[in-house]
């Protein structure tokens, strides 16, 4: 300590010591970035990178977006790149799909994916099927993005999860981010992809800060579509989730770890194409599987995962039936206490884990 003090005294005020071998200077570290800001960064970087990219949707321009995802972009890129539309999802989605067929790369924002039902003919019949029906001669590079699933206190017509709906359709890619790195990397990858991509964000995550690595702060950072991420290593049970329930799984895993149960948490990131290989490898290690999602139980993402595991080599490693944790099989109630009981909670995940482990 004395030597260190003497060293400080020898350095003139206002001057820095030069780098010395054996001393580590602080490198640019990870920073906290909200999902909202991560999406804004991704849009800004891709608009700057490729002049064919443009954003359209309700209130995306002068108002900076209903959720402020496009904050500042209209002032920077102008009316031709950031386009406010009338409240007509079928109309502006059709315009976006036509623009993609003509060689542009539109990002089409739905104020909520519940409103995409107004434009599902354009998304499925026009965007998803055209490349196939044209024998590959007409790609449709378009991104449909916006908040998906339940928010808070917005009742039945604003609370569906559309992961299973759009994941059902060949011709589409479907991504569902959880963290800020997911959001930025998947949006950039989606914009660069030559296929139509449905990006299902979560309104309740927009204001949540996540640690973003130095790598993710780069303009070249992308998250590969179709690749899941192991968020936590474990040995006793595999938890598979996407979007906001990933956080619930990690919280449940922390609680269960205090009881000696080590959960492996997989963040799917992509619904279609699904990275079932990562899930299979995890099940082969843990011998147990619990899927978690905010959507309805029938024909859901968890159902697909369970079917794929049962039909594949990982089935032979299961020591107990797979268990699904889902939203309740009812339209979303408005009352908060009923809403809480319709959405998977941490306690529901813990109960499912103990059930499959028979503890």
Automatic annotation (TrEMBL):
Its main location: mitochondrion. It is found in: Mitochondrion. Its cofactor is thiamine diphosphate. GO terms for biological process: glucose metabolic process; pyruvate decarboxylation to acetyl-CoA. Gene3D superfamilies: 3.40.50.920, 3.40.50.970. Its EC number is 1.2.4.1. Keywords: Carbohydrate metabolism, Glucose metabolism, Metal-binding, Mitochondrion, Oxidoreductase, Potassium, Pyruvate, Thiamine pyrophosphate, Transit peptide. InterPro entries: PDHB_mito-type, THDP-binding, Transketo_C/PFOR_II, Transketolase-like_Pyr-bd, Transketolase_C. It comes from the Eukaryota. It is an enzyme of class 1 (oxidoreductase). One of its GO terms (molecular function) is pyruvate dehydrogenase (acetyl-transferring) activity. Residues 33-208 form the Transketolase-like pyrimidine-binding domain. GO terms for cellular component: mitochondrion; nucleoplasm; pyruvate dehydrogenase complex. It catalyses: N(6)-[(R)-lipoyl]-L-lysyl-[protein] + pyruvate + H(+) = N(6)-[(R)-S(8)-acetyldihydrolipoyl]-L-lysyl-[protein] + CO2. Heterotetramer of two PDHA1 and two PDHB subunits. The heterotetramer interacts with DLAT, and is part of the multimeric pyruvate dehydrogenase complex that contains multiple copies of pyruvate dehydrogenase (E1), dihydrolipoamide acetyltransferase (DLAT, E2) and lipoamide dehydrogenase (DLD, E3). These subunits are bound to an inner core composed of about 48 DLAT and 12 PDHX molecules. Interacts with DLAT. The pyruvate dehydrogenase complex catalyzes the overall conversion of pyruvate to acetyl-CoA and CO(2), and thereby links the glycolytic pathway to the tricarboxylic cycle. The pyruvate dehydrogenase complex catalyzes the overall conversion of pyruvate to acetyl-CoA and CO2. This is Pyruvate dehydrogenase E1 component subunit beta. It comes from Gallus gallus. The gene is PDHB.
């Amino acid at each position: 300590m004395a030597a260190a003090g003497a060293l400080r005294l020898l350095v003139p005020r206002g001057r820095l010591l030069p780098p010395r071998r054996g001393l580590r200077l602080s490198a640019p570290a990870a920073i906290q970035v909200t999902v909202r800001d991560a999406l804004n960064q991704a849009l800004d970087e891709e608009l700057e990178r490729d002049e064919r990219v443009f954003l359209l949707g309700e209130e995306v321009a002068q108002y900076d977006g209903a959720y402020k995802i496009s904050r500042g972009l209209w002032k920077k890129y102008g009316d031709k790149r950031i386009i406010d539309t009338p409240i007509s999802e079928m109309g502006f989605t059709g315009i976006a799909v036509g623009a993609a067929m003509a060689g542009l790369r539109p990002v089409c924002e739905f104020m909520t994916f519940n409103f995409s039902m107004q434009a599902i003919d354009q998304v499925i019949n026009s965007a998803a099927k055209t490349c196939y029906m044209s024998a590959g001669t007409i790609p449709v590079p378009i991104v449909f993005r916006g908040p998906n699933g339940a928010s808070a206190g917005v009742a039945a017509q604003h609370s569906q999860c559309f992961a299973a709906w759009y994941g059902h359709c060949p011709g589409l890619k479907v991504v569902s981010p959880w963290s800020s790195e997911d959001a930025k990397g998947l949006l950039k990858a989606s914009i660069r992809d030559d296929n139509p991509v449905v990006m299902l964000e979560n309104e309740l995550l927009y204001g949540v800060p996540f640690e973003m690595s130095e790598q993710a702060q780069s303009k070249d950072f992308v998250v590969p579509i179709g690749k899941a991420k192991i968020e936590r290593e474990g040995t006793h049970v595999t938890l598979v989730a996407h979007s906001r329930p990933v956080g619930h799984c990690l919280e449940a895993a922390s609680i269960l770890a205090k009881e000696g149960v080590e959960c492996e948490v997989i963040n799917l990131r992509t619904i279609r194409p699904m990275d079932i290989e990562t899930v299979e490898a995890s099940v082969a290690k843990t011998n147990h599987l619990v899927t978690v999602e905010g959507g309805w139980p029938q024909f859901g993402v968890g159902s697909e995962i369970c079917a794929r595991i049962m039909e594949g080599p990982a089935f032979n490693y299961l020591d107990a039936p797979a268990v699904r944790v889902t939203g309740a099989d009812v339209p979303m109630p408005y009352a908060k206490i009923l809403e809480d009981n319709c959405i998977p909670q941490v306690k529901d995940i813990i109960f499912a884990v103990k059930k499959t482990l028979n503890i």
